[in-house]
From TrEMBL:
ATP binds at K82. Keywords: ATP-binding, Kinase, Nucleotide-binding, Serine/threonine-protein kinase, Transferase. One of its GO terms (molecular function) is protein serine/threonine kinase activity. This is Protein kinase domain-containing protein. It catalyses: L-seryl-[protein] + ATP = O-phospho-L-seryl-[protein] + ADP + H(+); L-threonyl-[protein] + ATP = O-phospho-L-threonyl-[protein] + ADP + H(+). Pfam families: PK_Tyr_Ser-Thr. InterPro entries: Kinase-like_dom_sf, Prot_kinase_dom, Protein_kinase_ATP_BS, Ser-Thr/Tyr_kinase_cat_dom, Ser/Thr_kinase_AS, Ser/Thr_Kinases-Pseudokinases. It comes from the Eukaryota.
């Protein structure tokens, strides 16, 4: 029986009612009892601002819930220009301006080859974020364009490593992304690497608050971000950066299968199935046991059992090393010392692979114990 068949109408309606009721709430830590803004507005350092007089906006290349993205030019540089919505009333404008300032401040302080490069921001006359323009398409569009074919396994793992490294950088800087999905990942022009592009829903880990339904996208959201119990006004729902690890597990599954997670379900059905039925997308029968373990450890229900992105990068690199045979060495026969040194290097790499596998044995053990407990 499919997930959607097990999802009964009564349960769905009740869950949908609760989720939609929360979706219209403004983040609880911004409101007082009378609905006025209580937290001080965030500010943007002047050295992060660009000169609007030399910023030109061209054709639209994308659109999301919180703004539109255009191709543009800043001075003599071709850039991407994200124009954010201002809001329709004073409270909404204050909240969106806070979000804008938060996104700018976070983007400006993290730099990594797998993060889209931040160039600057503009507060007036529009709220604008200027970044490098990648000529490639989003990972979502690319995957859709090649269906029903799947990515080459080597390419899929390389993309996954790029994403994990970007997330490792964010977490090292105390940032939770909260909206990791293929739509927010951009391919470079040669399609050899991936960059994380959107920080619109990111938060500092020290100030995480109740998650409203607008945060993230249900198919990729960790189960702990929503509940059947409606939280009281002002009550906070705590979580940590392991919500991003869950989302990464779903993205990795997509890279390997090139299918939509929770196919045949609505967004709310997918959320209900993941959170309250402990359902996950089905793994391909021919998947490598090592990759299956990485995916399953990322989306295990208990966040404490999920690996860190540092561990994920090492596991994926270990798999890539065993998957890709080393190129043959062309050394002169007379160079015995060089050959011995080369053999020593290969042995060292093999030992590293063995050590890496051993390092994650404890995660396998914990995950197996969790699955056994759930099946009882």
């Amino acid at each position: 029986m499919s997930c959607s068949e097990r999802f009964r109408g009564g349960e769905e309606k009740e869950y949908e009612h609760q989720v939609l009721r929360r979706s219209v709430d403004v983040e609880s830590n911004l409101l007082s009892q009378n609905g006025s803004i209580t937290t001080p507005q965030l500010t943007i350092d002047d050295n992060l601002l660009v000169d609007p007089k030399v910023l030109f906006i061209g054709s639209k290349i994308g659109e999301g819930a919180h703004g539109k993205v255009y191709e543009g030019r800043y001075g003599d540089r071709i850039v991407a220009v994200k124009v954010l919505h201002r809001g329709n009333n004073s409270d909404e404008r204050a909240s969106l301006e806070n979000r804008f300032a938060r996104e700018v401040n976070m983007m400006s302080r993290v730099k990594h080859e797998n993060l889209v490069k931040f160039i600057g921001a503009c507060k007036d006359p529009l709220m604008v974020i200027v970044t490098e323009l990648l000529p490639g398409m989003s990972l979502r569009k690319y995957l859709v364009s090649i269906r029903p074919h799947k990515l080459d396994l080597h390419v899929a793992i390389k993309y996954a490593i790029d994403i994990a490294r970007a997330m490792e950088c964010l977490h090292a800087n105390g940032i939770i992304h909260r909206d990791l999905k293929p739509d927010n990942l951009l391919l470079t022009a040669n399609q050899k690497s991936v960059k994380l592009a959107d920080f619109g829903l990111a938060r500092e880990e020290t100030v995480t608050e109740m998650m409203t339904a607008e945060t993230g996208t249900y198919r990729w959201m960790a189960p702990e971000l929503y509940s059947t119990v409606t939280l009281r006004q002002g009550e906070k729902k705590h979580y940590n950066n392991k919500v991003d690890v869950y989302s990464f597990g779903i993205v990795l599954w997509e890279l390997l299968t090139n299918r939509m997670p929770f196919e045949g379900m609505s967004n709310l059905q997918a959320a209900y199935a993941a959170a309250f039925k402990q359902e996950r997308p089905s793994l391909p029968e021919d998947i490598s046991p090592d990759l299956a373990f990485i995916i399953q450890s990322c989306w295990v229900e208990d966040p404490n059992l999920r690996p860190t992105f540092d561990q994920i990068v090492r596991m994926l690199n270990s798999f890539l090393f065993t998957f890709s045979p080393s190129p043959p060495l062309s050394l002169p026969d007379s160079d015995s010392n060089g050959a011995e040194a080369s053999n020593g290097t290969n042995t060292s790499m093999t030992d590293l692979s063995v050590r890496t596998r051993g390092k994650f044995a404890f995660i396998r053990h914990l995950f197996a114990a969790k699955r056994t407990k759930n099946s009882q």
